[in-house]
Amino acid sequence: MDNHLVKLREIVKIYRTGETELKALKGINLDVKPGDFLAVMGPSGSGKSTLMNIIGCLDKPTSGKYFLEGKEISKYNKNQLALIRNKKIGFVFQTFNLLPRTTALENVELPLLYTKISGKRRRELARKALAQVGLAGRENHRTNQLSGGEQQRVAIARALINNPTLILADEPTGNLDTKTGDEILEIFKNLNKNKGITIIMVTHDPHVAEMAKRIIYLRDGEIVDEKLNI
Amino acid sequence: MNFLKIIQVAFRALMRNKIRSFLTILGIIIGVGSVIAMISIGQGAKSSVEERFQSLGTNLLFVRAGSSYSRGVRGGMGSVTSLTAEDAEAIQEKCDAVKYASPTVSTRAQVIYRNKNWNTSVIGCNEYYPEIRNWTVELGTFFTRSHVKISAKVCLLGQTVVENLFGEGENPVGKIIRVNRIPFTVIGVLAEKGESWGWFDQDDVILAPYTTVQKRLLGINHLRSIDVSAVSFERMDEAEQQITELLRERHKIGPYEEDDFFIRNMSEISRMASETSNMMTIFLASIASVSLLVGGIGIMNIMLVSVRERIREIGIRMSVGAKERDILFQFLTEAIVLSVIGGLIGIIIGIVGSRLISHFAGWSTLVSPASIFIAFIFSAIVGVFFGFYPAYKASKLNPIEALRYE
């Protein structure tokens, strides 16, 4: 067995709306090693997000095989996928996607609510994760009291709390100014370097993609180019 | 997610929209409150009817003399003279479903004490009569078997008679009154029954030994009726059966002849009255449940709005690993919390409301634990029933679309 964390074979995704068919992905083959930092680039409509949703177990491919840590995820049902999302994967979105009017601590705790971990231990872990992204002392601030950069840090802490093997970031700096964006990217870089967490990041910003070890280019649902950063 | 956490999350979500939650709950409060108040009115009416029957007598059966028939002329009810004191004796002795039997005769008489007089009914009976008709003696004692045997001229007075013949604070016991100009010694006063049946005042009565009334006041040897108390409510029909057989035999009535007596079984009448008030209870409760139903629809409406408003939240929860079941329970719990809180407050409002009704309208109301329990369970069921559809809808959302929803 090879040691790929993510292995995609001939992944096809077709969206059907009434009569019209949209082929979002046309047979993607992709291998991601553990500890990799991959940037996915491409113009809008190229299938970046669809690819992310499939890797993130939010969606199922129409055909093709998806192996995560050697297990064939493409055969899993909805509940099993939810469990994978909970245990293995952390998401960071462009729009942060935090619960409104909820404290930073509660947002970070959220994934653990769907595990058997006790309330005390949950808060402990959440505090730790917040400290990791430099938000110690802001645990009880509500979402709307935090700046954009802080909100994205909370989202990263939330993604980290379950000790995921894979973090998926969808345009994580898209709603931030350059300086804050760089700070966020620095956090990703550290997580990748120091903790060995695999990161897959969607972006259309070449400057952001520079941070990754490897860049793939998507166009019309196909990988058209690949580049390694030294 | 554990149970406590689910409830906590539900509470927090509901507290975010306090006014909306309160208005939703209000529907259930009114529903449960009115169900409880309406049932209490029905139950109150039922118990006051039962009380009235109880004051008439326990497990009471009347054996009445039938109508006479001679040479084509039919007499009225009670005109047959075949019912005798011996029949009463025999019923008492031989029917094992009968606890007490008392011969009764009655007449109206003018009673005089000093300068006051009053017209009242005089009932002749035996020493068991207080047991049969639930009379208690307030002052003095009831007459005994020997009083009956010697046709003693003694009597007991009902409260209304006392009020009309004696002055305030005067003790009637030991006084001699004249009943149709015959002197009777008052040996006791009966406790007030209070519960009257419309125009019929149960306390306007004089009780005397039936032998005395037969000989001194009426000059007859037969009875108007025999009042019988059965051993228990369940055995009333049996008692009726036994009495019928016994009397047919004693009166030598052939197999194809009609009875010369008839038996009125109070259990039938009280059953009928209970059924009537039960029907009223059901009727009132079903009207009230309509408001509970409307309250439930209110919950469903608000939950649908709430799910729509929180599509993004649902998407976030799903993306971090919430299963369909988790989302379903989350929203279902919110609906149940709403309806259960409404139910609890409704119970209090219902109890207070029924108190107020009995206070201001003067109706007797009765809040039974059963009605509270039923109303509460019903409100919880309303929560589950009307909460399920919105919760199910939420749980079936597609996580990607939910996350993108603006």
Overview features:
heterodimer; A: 230 residues; alpha/beta; six-stranded mixed beta sheet; four-stranded antiparallel beta sheet; B: alpha+beta; 2 domains; six-stranded mixed β-barrel; two-stranded antiparallel ribbon; 12 strands; 18% strand
Summarize the structure in words.
The complex is a heterodimer of chains A (230) and B (406). By secondary structure, chain A is α/β, with parallel strands linked by helices. Chain A has helices at residues 48-55, 78-87, 104-113, 119-132, 148-160, 178-194, 206-209, and strands at residues 6-17, 20-32, 37-41, 63-68, 71-72, 89-92, 166-170, 198-202, 214-219, 222-228. Chain A has a 6-stranded mixed β-sheet, sandwiched between helices. Chain A starts with 5 loop residues before the first strand and ends with a strand. Chain B is of the alpha+beta class. Chain B has helices at residues 3-16, 18-56, 85-94, 129-133, 145-149, 159-165, 210-218, 236-250, 266-309, 311-319, 324-360, 369-395, 399-404; strands at residues 60-65, 69-70, 73-74, 98-113, 116-125, 137-140, 154-157, 176-179, 182-190, 205-209, 225-230, 261-265. Chain B starts with a helix and ends with a helix. At the A-B interface, helix 2 and helix 3 of A face helix 1, helix 10, helix 11 and helix 13 of B.
